[in-house]
Amino acid sequence: MRAFGILAALLVLVGGAVAWRVRVKGAEAAAQAEQRKARSSSAPSVAVGQVERRDIVKSFEGVGTIEAPTHVKLAAKVSGRIAFLQVEEGDHVTAGQALVRLDAPEAEAQVRSQLAQVAESRSRLAQAALGQNPADVSASSSIRQQEAALSAARADNEQVRKTVQAQMAAAQASLSDAQAKIDNATAAVGGAEAGVRSAQANLANAMTRHSRVADLFKQGFIAAQDVDDARTAQDVQAGAVEVATGQLNVTRAQLRSAQALAESARQSAEIVGGKGKADIAASDAKLQQAAASLDAARANKALPAAYKRSVEAARAAVAADEAALRNAQAQLANSALAAPVSGRITAKLMDQGSMATVGAPILEIQAVKTVWATAAVPEEAAVRLRTGQPGAVTVDAWPGREFLGKVTQVNAASDIASRQVTVRVALDNADGALQAGMFAKVKLVTQRLAQVVVAPREAIQRTKEGPALAVVGKDMKVRMAPVQIGAADAAGIEVKGEVAPGDRVVTMSGGPVKDGQTVRLGGKRPARGGAR
Questions:
Q1: Looking at domain 70-104+335-364, does it have CATH number 2.40.50.100?
Q2: What string of DSSP letters covers 279-293?
Q3: Is domain 45-56+451-521 given the CATH code 2.40.37.10 in the classification?
Q4: Of 279, 12, 407, nearest to 4 (Cα)?
C-alpha cells in the first residue's frame, strides 16, 4: 500500500509538469506570432544616397612604352680610319659637339693641291690685269704666255687622266680581291657545313654503337672496358661536332667580313669614279680655256679687247679653281662628324682605330629631354582623343610618381590585326628620370559630360517598366521614379527623369520597397552592390 501511494504521487507530479510545459509552449508561440505581425506591419529600414549634379569623366588606362622622339644614327660620309672617338654609351652630347674625326690624308692632300692651284690662277689674273692697261704690251709675249699655259694645261690634263686611270685600276683590283675573298669564304662555309654534317653522322654512329655495347654488357656478353671505350668514342665524336660547329661559325664570320670588305671596296670604287670624272672634267675645262685664251691672244694681238678677254679668262680660271677648292674642303669637312641633336649616346658601334665606311653607323643618339609614352588604344576610345589634351603616365621604376604630359600624336589609321590606334603622350624629361624602353601605364580622358544629374550606381532598381529610383521624401514615403540611364563612371551613373539634385534615393534595404511605402533610415550607403 505504501508503494502504491508513492507511485500515485509520482504520476501526479509528472502530469503537472507536462501540463505546465504545454502552457509555456503555447505562450511562447503566441508571443512569436505577435512579433511576426509587428515586424510585417512596421516600416522597413533602408540606406540612402543622394542624387547630385556633377561632371562624369570616362577614361582609358592602358600600357605602353617610353620612346625617344628623335633617334639618330651617325654615319661616315667618307671612308677612313677613326682617329678620334672618345664618347661612351650614356654620355650626354649637345648639338654641334664634335664626336668623330676620321684620318683622311687624301682629302687633306687634295685641299693643299687646290690651295696651290688657286694661288697660281690668282697670280695669272694679276698678271693679266697688269698687262691690260699699257698700250704697248707685246702681243707676242701674251701669245707665248698663253701657249705656255696651254702646254701646262695639256700636261696637267694628261697627268689627271693617268692618275684617274690608276686609281680606277686600284679600286677595281680591290673589288676583285674582295670578291675572291667572298668566293673563298663561301667555299669554306660549304666545307665547314659538310664537316658539321659528317661529325654529326659520326656522333650518331658512336651513340648507336654505345647503345648496342651497353645492351651486350647488360646481357653479359662483353666486358665493362668495351662499354667505356664506346662511351669515350661517343664523347670524342661529340667534341668533334662542337669543333666542326665552331669552325662553321668562324667561316661564316669570315664570309660576313669578306662581304663587308667587298661593299667597302664597291663604295670606294664609286667614290673614285665620281671624283675622277669630276677631275677630268675640270682639267678638260682648263685645257679648253687655255686653248681659247691662246686663240684670243693670236686673233686680237693688236687690240686692247684681247687683254680684257684675257683678264676675263683669268677670272674664270680663278673662279673654277676656287670652286674646286671649296669642293675639296667640303670633302675634308666630311671627315669630322658632329652631333646633329642634343641627347644621350645609346649605342657605340665602332671604336677609335676602327675603319669606317660610307654609310656605316658609328654612334646612335637619342634626344631624351622630351620623351613619348606610346600606347595602343582601342578604336572606340581613340576616336575621342585629340592632340593637346592632357595625359598621365606612371612607370614601375618610379612608384608613386605621376608624369603629366599632353597627347602629341594620334595615328590616323588603326592596326588591321589588333584594331588599335597608336597614341603618343609627350612628357617633359628635363631631369632624365624617364629612359627609352621603360614600361609605362598611360591614362587618358576619353569623355567628359559636364554637369549632368548623377545617381549612385547601387540605387538603380530594375522594374518591369524599366530602370527606376526609389526616392525617399521628407515624409519618409517612397516614390518610384522611372528614369533613363546614360553614361557612367566609377562613382555614379547619369539619370534622366523625375529626379533632381539633392533627392534621397534608396541604395540598400532590408526588403523590397514599394511606391507609397513608409520607410525609416538605418545603416550607411554601401560602397558597391545594388538595392535590395
A1: yes
A2: HHHHHHHHHHHHHHH
A3: no
A4: 12
Closest CA to 171 of 261, 282, 75: 261
Task: Specify which residues 283 forms β-bridges with.
Answer: none
Helices marked H in 100-138 = 105-130
Inter-residue contact 208 to 281 (CB < 8 Å):
no
Condensed to tens digits (0 to 9), the pLDDT of residues 121-167 reads 777 777 766 655 554 455 667 777 777 887 888 888 888 788 888 87
How far from chain centre, in Å, is Cα 212? 56
pLDDT tens per residue, range 50-102: 788 887 777 788 888 988 887 777 777 777 777 777 777 777 777 777 777 77
What's the pLDDT tens digit per position in 366-408? 777 888 889 888 887 778 788 888 888 999 889 988 998 899 8
Burial (Cβ within 10 Å: 0-12, 13-18, ≥19) of residue 150? buried
DSSP symbol at 518: B
Instruction: Encode pLDDT of 426-445 as tens digits.
Output: 888 888 888 888 899 998 88
Task: Scan for cell 502504491, then name that residue.
Answer: 4
313 DSSP assignment: H
For the question of whether the overall pTM of this predicted structure is more than 0.70, the answer is: no
Taking the CA atoms of 455, 457, 461 and 462 in sequence, report the sign of the dihedral they define. positive
Whether 315 contacts 125, CB under 8 Å: yes
**Domain residue limits, the chain:** 45-56+451-521, 70-104+335-364, 107-333
Using CA atoms, how far apart are residues 404 and 401, in angstroms rounded to an integer?
10
Answer whether 45-56+451-521 and 70-104+335-364 agree in fold.
no
**Contact status, residue 328 vs residue 109, Cβ threshold 8 Å:** no
The CATH class given to the 107-333 domain equals mainly alpha
Residues in the chain: 532
**For range 177-203, the mean pLDDT:** 85
CA distances from 162 to 16, 165, 167 (A): 145, 5, 9
